[in-house]
Amino acid sequence: MAAERRLLPQGWRKLVLVLHVTGGVGWMGLDVGLLFLVFTGLLTDSGRTAVAVYTAIGILVPPAVVSLSLLMLVTGLVQGLWTKWGLLQYWWVVVKLVLGIVLTALVFIALLPAVGSLSAELIGTDGASGAAVRRALGAAPVQLLFPPIVSFLSLAFALVLAVYKPWGPVRH
């Protein structure tokens, strides 16, 4: 006979849920801010503004996205392991788990290296035009459009799954 799974007490379950929602919604908010910064960097004629935007992205993104993505993923795992929903018992939980793992992996594999290269590329762009700053950054300004769009839409989909809980249990 299988051992009965221990569940989190109600107070802890609510705390973990609040932290999970905070991580996901915080990440979505960061995505919106990042998208505004990226569009500003793409559209400005001012070199000073472009340098400021890409410098801000380099300062803000690494600690904020890493913290929020790990908070969301870890608290999601805790909820899956120690609440009635289980980690692999319902399709909506499985899909959210896969989305969380993929998005968090993309932060470390794609986003952080792209953002990390910005500061080195900005050296020597003082006094340049916005177009010259973008040329110095190569494809990065356009490539930076995709992470906030993809993660925002994926997190919004995960939010809808958490509210509606579609598809029922996974059949074993």
Write the layout of secondary structure elements.
Layout: H1 10-43, H2 47-82, H3 91-116, H4 118-122, H5 130-137, H6 140-143, H7 146-164
Name its key features.
mainly alpha; 7 helices; 77% helix; 172 residues; elongated; single chain
Account of the protein in words:
This protein is mainly α and 172 residues long. The chain is 77% helix and 0% strand. It has one domain (10-164). The chain contains 7 helices and no strands. α1 runs antiparallel to α2, α1 packs antiparallel against α7 and α3 runs antiparallel to α7 (146-164). The longest helix has 36 residues, at 47-82. This is DUF2269 domain-containing protein.
- Could you spell the SSE succession in H and E letters? HHHHHHH
Which shape, going by the Cα principal axes?
elongated
Detail the poorly predicted runs.
none
Count of DSSP E strands? 0
Protein name: DUF2269 domain-containing protein
Characterize this entry briefly:
The protein is mainly α and 172 residues long.
